[in-house]
Design a protein that fits this description.
disordered N terminus, Immunoglobulin-like, mainly beta, L,D-transpeptidase catalytic domain-like, 5 helices, five-stranded mixed β-sheet, peptidoglycan synthesis, cell shape, Big_10, elongated
Length: 424
């Protein structure tokens, strides 16, 4: 019986092995499976602007790119001599921007390749640029290469003529700011002749600001074009210095990184010529300058002033005023400036930067919008409303206005106008 059982087991095993051996040599009926058909990959599309052989285009022309089911791998823009131009994609990948403006009356060809990682698609186009326009708008930027500024220094671009509202979005789209470390910001049109950029809060100490106003040849409305392409790379100081001026006690408190390090008496504007209340920014510093009011209404004189730091275009400065030392800390006698003693004026001059914030409180007269670098006198909620372009949702959330801490523990630029302040 045992032998039969062993035989039966062996026979059963043999029966099972036969079809397994057959599977190694073919697909017997009952074992073959039909593979599911693979869907065709989605079609790739790539469209470029300008369209082929367009003529008389601005030298600010960008290469517009519309791509589907692929990503841009390369952009090759060449001039008539075959020289390749460098450039960068916009953050939203909608266009490729040359690093420099194109030449007037130049011919260019461009080839763009996009890929999904398996397949590639390539398109080409060509175009020519216009002759140099006769009507050009002067541009300037209040930022100098290799300079160090205070934490409240805005990026300010000015124009010699009014930019119509309908043209401001296009102008704003050609203003680029890169910060290291990253601190996203927004542009705000103070007027048709000035646009200002800042972040929700003061720049972090040590930030590097790289700015390009890519405006050469850019249409600016009414048949006018931008005059130049301007760049600057500057640094923010390694400390946050803030000045707080209170009319109530007639003192200037100086905060360094949130800690009060000095307090000094001051005399502000008298009742007939009050100082402005609001957050200003030191715009310019002159160790010695001339205040000249001849030909202006009111007091007229021409006098030399020491250690002057400009706060407004209207002529408000912090400066040395030895003639009012007895009034400083007690009464206001100036024409709007902040009078300090010679020794305090020297200390401030040696410790402050262009771009440091100065907040004046309690004078009863509000700082006029655009009278100096007034970006920080607006709340963030107000500031973002001044952009001509849509503001990203993540930047729309209101941020508390930046206030000084209560703690007690490349490039050509528009020249700063000569001081025309009354003696203060």
């Amino acid at each position: 019986m045992g032998a039969l059982r062993r035989f039966g087991l062996a026979a059963a095993t043999a029966v099972v092995l036969v079809p397994l051996t057959s599977c190694d040599t073919g697909d017997p009926a009952g074992f073959k499976q039909n593979a599911a058909p693979q869907p065709a990959p989605p079609a790739q599309t790539l469209e470029l602007t300008p369209a082929a052989e367009q003529k008389d285009l601005p030298v600010s022309t960008e290469i517009g790119i519309t791509v589907a089911n692929a990503s841009v791998r390369s952009v090759a823009l060449a001039d008539a001599k075959g020289r390749l131009l460098s450039g960068q994609m916009r953050p939203d990948n909608s266009a490729w921007i040359p690093d420099k403006p194109l030449d007037y009356k130049g011919r260019y060809s461009v080839t763009v390749t996009a890929t999904d990682g398996r397949r590639a698609i390539t398109k080409s186009t060509s175009f020519t640029t216009m002759a140099e326009p006769q009507r050009q708008v002067g541009t300037g930027m209040y930022l100098f290469d290799d300079h160090t500024y205070g934490v409240a220094m805005p990026v300010v671009v000015e124009f010699s003529e009014q930019i119509p509202e309908k043209s401001r979005a296009q102008v704003e789209s050609r203003l680029f700011v890169t910060t290291t470390p990253a601190q996203p910001g927004v542009w705000h049109w103070m007027s048709g002749r000035q646009v200002t950029y800042r972040a929700p809060e003061y720049w972090k100490p040590g930030t590097v600001l790289s700015v390009r106003a890519a405006l050469k040849g850019l249409p600016m409305g009414e048949g006018r074009y931008g005059d130049d392409d301007r760049k600057a790379t500057a640094k923010i100081a390694g400390e946050k210095l803030e000045l707080v001026v209170k009319n109530s006690n007639k003192h200037i408190d100086v905060f360094r990184n949130g800690k009060k390090v000095r307090s000094m008496p001051v005399s502000l504007g008298k009742a007939s010529t009050p100082s402005s209340s609001g957050t200003m920014v030191i715009m310019d510093k002159q160790e010695s300058t001339i205040f000249d009011t001849t030909g202006e209404p009111g007091d007229q004189y021409r006098v030399q002033i020491q250690y002057a730091q400009r706060l407004t275009w209207g002529g408000e400065f912090i400066h040395s005023a030895p003639w009012s030392v007895g009034d400083q800390g007690n009464r206001n006698v100036s024409h709007g400036c902040l009078n300090v003693s010679p020794s305090n004026a020297v200390w401030l001059f040696q410790n402050t930067h262009v771009g440091d914030p100065v907040t004046v409180k309690g004078t009863g007269v509000k700082l006029e919008r655009g009278n100096g670098f007034t970006a920080w006198d607006l709340s963030w909620k107000e500031f973002v409303k001044g952009s001509a372009l849509p503001v990203p949702q993540e930047l729309l959330e209101p941020v508390p206005a930046v206030a000084p801490s209560p703690s007690v523990s490349a490039t050509p630029s528009v020249a700063v106008p000569s001081p025309t302040d009354s003696i203060n």
